Amino acid sequence: MIKNNLIVTLGVLSLVVGTGLYINNNQQENAVVPPETKEKSQEDLAKEKIKELNTRVVNGEEKILGQSAMFPDITKEEAFQEADLVIKGKVDSIDKEYMEHTDIPFTDFKFNVEEYWKSDLSEEENNSIEQLIVTQDGNTQAEFNEHPLMSAGGEYVLFIKRTLDNNNQEKLVMIGGPNGKFNVKNDIIDQEINTHAVNGENVDEFLKDASQGKVTEAVTEIEIK
Hints:
With 225 residues, this protein is α+β, with helices and mostly antiparallel strands. The chain has helices at 12-16, 42-58, 76-82, 123-128, 203-210, and strands spanning 7-10, 21-24, 85-100, 104-118, 131-137, 155-164, 170-174, 181-185, 188-189, 220-221.
C-alpha cells in the first residue's frame, strides 16, 4: 500500500560513491539529524538515509514521485578530493536517457573535455581522450529543480567519480548532484550553490581553491582542432 506521504529516493549510482540524495515533497523532518547521529559524517548519514528509503520503495511502502531534491552538503574542497576526474569542457549532446529500477531517471551526456584539472588517467590518455560519457541524475521527463540538466553547447566544470551500475558497467557520475556541476560563462562560474561561495569566481581560481593549492593550473589542456 502506498502512503500519502510521498517520498522520492534517487541516487542509486550516487549512493555508491557516498553522495546520495533523497527527495521529500511534504516533510522536512527527514532532513533533521537525530542527536545520536551528529557525530556521523554527511556521507554516512546520506548512505543510511538512502538505504532506508530505497528499501521502503522496493517494499512498496513509498512511491517515487516528485522533482524537489535534497542533496548532502559537500564543499568544493571535499568534492575535489573525492573526485577521480575534475574536468572543464562543453556538452556535445545527449547520449541516452533511461530509468533505473523503473522509476529513477538518468541521462548520459557526451562531454567534450577541454581541460583536465585532476585525473586518474595516464598522461597519454589525458592527451588523447577528448570526449567522455558523463551521467547526471534526471532526464527530460523528470528534471530536478536544484540540479537542472546540462544543455548542449553549455560549458561546465565537473567533479566526477567512477562507479559501477547494476549491470556492472562503469559510470562517470557527478559528485553530490549540483555540488559536482558548475555552469561556466566567459570563464566565470555562473551558479549559486548553498555549499559553495563560487558565483562570479574565475574558473582557474575556483579550481585552485578547490584543490587547496595542490593544483595551480590544468594538468592537461586538450588542443581544440
